[in-house]
């Protein structure tokens, strides 16, 4: 029973699916039919009718024929074929041959897509032809007006175009012929070729109009402005030579001649209507002429610099020489009291040598200024180098003098440090005295002797003549370490001794009852009397903690409280 139901349900499902699928395919046939009718109703005949209003000759006639044939082929052959294929697809569906029907519908859709593109292409080409004819007609009138304006300007202001006027005439006449060519092509129905003529004319007239705007200005530059600047430069150059300036290194006459030749070259370019190249050369010339003005101005400024700097430098060098003498005397005096490192002495000798070289260079420049054979700009460069070297030398000299002064200051600081360390040592000994210890452990006594010795070493170094400050500093470092170590050791030793004593006193309460405590405390006392405070403390703590854990903490606490009260 259950099996029969399943078969029945599957059968019903298959029938429903079949029905839905067929309906969908019939809908697709209706869609394609509608597309075919839509294509047939496209306004191609109306578009082609517009073409008939043009001159139906030449290129237009050929195009019209091709488009008409294409459209006839679509309407008479290709669309009826589609109709036939749709009919075949319906027949296949009626016979339940779905797969073949689906394949055929796919082919029909592809075909319609291709026809759609073909129709679109025809309409687009027709519109392009008609549009180009309309646009060309409008633009050719504008171009005629521009051409008339250009001819009129050339006639009225011919003198402003110089020798370029003849070639402008030729080019405008050539352009005029293109109007005739446009008329002929339009007459012959070759609208697309006529459009090309319009575009070429537009470009040529644009170029000529731009040239006619630029040529008068360029000629003004080349015939008036630039030659006037060159003449001004030549006058300035001569005048400066007469005033004693040395300007041979500028090769001015040759350079000016080169600029004049460049101007001639530029005029030849304008004559040939090579306007962009001419503009480039004029721009270069302007920059080059500015650079020449700058060179002459530099010489004037360099002259002023040399005039003012020479006396100033002479004074600086004299001042330096005097200072160097003072430093020499100071160095000799310092050497009697202090040991100077070989590198410091070498530095001083180098300063002396540099000073002699700088003086020599200055005298050479002085001679060249007097000879008046060297350009001021070159002399200025040399003086600038000399100034920077003098500044460097002054700095080195200053550092050397500072080093000499520092030696004395360092000695005073060293003496102060020695006094401070002596006070620290005295303070350590005062603490020992105050604590009334029975005696000093041997290691401590050795450290104390070492600290005293290190302070004596510093004092001995400070008495040496000449004083060797690096050696003094070395001795100071060693003494500082020894004294600080001793002071820390003193504080630690006193603390251990005091705590050992107090722990023994605290432990006395257990002495009778506990023989082990008595034995431990006796040992601690023995160690204490023999100055081994560290071991005495350890023994006393061990003995007391045996019977009263935490006793040492209490002893320490009491000791800290006493200490803070004393302070």
Sum this structure up briefly.
The protein is mostly helical. Helices cover 88% and strands 0% of the residues.
| Shape estimate | flat
Question: What string, H for helix and E for strand, traces the elements in order?
Answer: HHHHHHHHHHHHHHH
Instruction: Please indicate the count of domains.
Output: 4
Class from helix and strand fractions: mainly alpha
- Name the poorly predicted regions: none
End-to-end distance: 114 Å
Radius of gyration: 58 Å
SSE topology sketch:
Layout: H1 2-40, H2 44-51, H3 58-94, H4 98-156, H5 164-187, H6 191-242, H7 252-271, H8 275-337, H9 342-371, H10 376-434, H11 442-463, H12 469-507, H13 515-529, H14 533-547, H15 551-566
Helix pairs in contact: 1-3, 1-4, 2-3, 2-4, 3-4, 4-5, 4-6, 5-6, 6-7, 6-8, 7-8, 8-9, 8-10, 9-10, 10-11, 10-12, 11-12, 12-13, 12-14, 12-15, 13-14
């Amino acid at each position: 029973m259950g099996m029969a139901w399943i078969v029945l349900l599957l059968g019903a499902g298959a029938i429903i699916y079949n029905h839905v699928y067929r309906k969908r395919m019939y809908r697709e046939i209706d869609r394609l039919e509608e597309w075919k009718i839509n294509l047939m109703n496209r306004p191609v005949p109306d578009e082609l009718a517009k073409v008939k209003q043009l001159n139906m000759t030449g290129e237009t006639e050929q195009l019209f024929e091709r488009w008409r044939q294409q459209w006839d082929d679509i309407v008479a052959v290709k669309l009826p074929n589609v109709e036939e294929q749709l009919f075949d697809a319906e027949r296949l569906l009626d016979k339940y041959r779905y797969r073949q029907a689906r394949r055929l519908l796919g082919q029909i859709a592809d075909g319609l897509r291709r026809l759609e593109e073909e129709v679109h292409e025809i309409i687009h080409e027709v519109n392009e032809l008609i549009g180009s004819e309309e646009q060309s007609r409008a633009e050719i009138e504008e171009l005629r007006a521009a051409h008339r304006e250009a001819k009129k300007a050339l006639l009225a202001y011919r003198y402003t175009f110089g020798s370029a006027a003849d070639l402008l005439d030729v080019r405008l006449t050539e352009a005029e012929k293109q109007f005739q060519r446009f008329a002929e092509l339009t007459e012959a129905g070759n609208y697309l070729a006529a459009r090309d003529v319009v575009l070429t004319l537009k470009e040529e007239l644009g170029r000529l109009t731009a040239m006619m705007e630029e040529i008068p200005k360029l000629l003004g530059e080349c015939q008036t402005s630039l030659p006037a600047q060159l003449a001004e430069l030549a006058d300035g150059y001569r005048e400066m030579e007469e005033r004693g300036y040395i300007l041979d290194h500028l090769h001015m006459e040759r350079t000016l001649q080169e600029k004049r030749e460049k101007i001639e070259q530029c005029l030849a370019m304008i004559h040939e209507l090579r306007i962009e190249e001419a503009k480039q050369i004029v721009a270069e010339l302007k920059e080059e002429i500015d650079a020449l003005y700058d060179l002459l101005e530099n010489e004037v400024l360099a002259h002023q610099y040399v005039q003012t700097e020479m006396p100033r430098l002479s004074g600086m060098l004299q001042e330096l020489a005097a200072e160097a003498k003072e430093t020499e005397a100071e160095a000799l005096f310092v050497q009697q009291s202090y040991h100077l490192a070989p590198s410091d002495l070498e530095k001083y000798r180098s300063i002396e040598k540099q000073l002699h070289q700088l003086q020599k260079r200055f005298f050479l420049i002085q001679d060249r200024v007097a000879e008046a054979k060297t350009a001021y700009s070159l002399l200025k460069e040399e003086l600038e180098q000399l100034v920077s070297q003098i500044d460097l030398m002054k700095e080195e000299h200053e550092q050397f003098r500072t080093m000499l002064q520092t030696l004395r200051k360092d000695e005073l600081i060293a003496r102060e440090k020695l006094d401070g360390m002596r006070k620290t040592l005295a303070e350590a000994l005062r603490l020992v005295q105050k604590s009334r210890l029975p005696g000093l452990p041997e290691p401590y006594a050795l450290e104390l002797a070492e600290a005293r010795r290190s302070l004596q070493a510093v004092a001995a170094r400070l008495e040496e003549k000449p004083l060797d400050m690096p050696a003094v500093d070395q001795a100071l470092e060693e003494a500082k370490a020894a004294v600080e170590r001793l002071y820390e050791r003193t504080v630690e030793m006193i603390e251990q001794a005091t705590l050992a004593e107090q722990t023994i006193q605290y432990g006395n309460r257990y002495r009778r009852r506990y023989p082990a405590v008595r034995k431990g405390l006796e040992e601690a006392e023995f160690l204490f009397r023999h100055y081994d405070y560290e071991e005495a403390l350890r023994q006393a703590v061990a003995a007391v903690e045996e019977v009263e854990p935490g006793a040492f903490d209490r002893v320490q606490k009491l000791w800290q409280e006493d200490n803070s009260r004393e302070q």
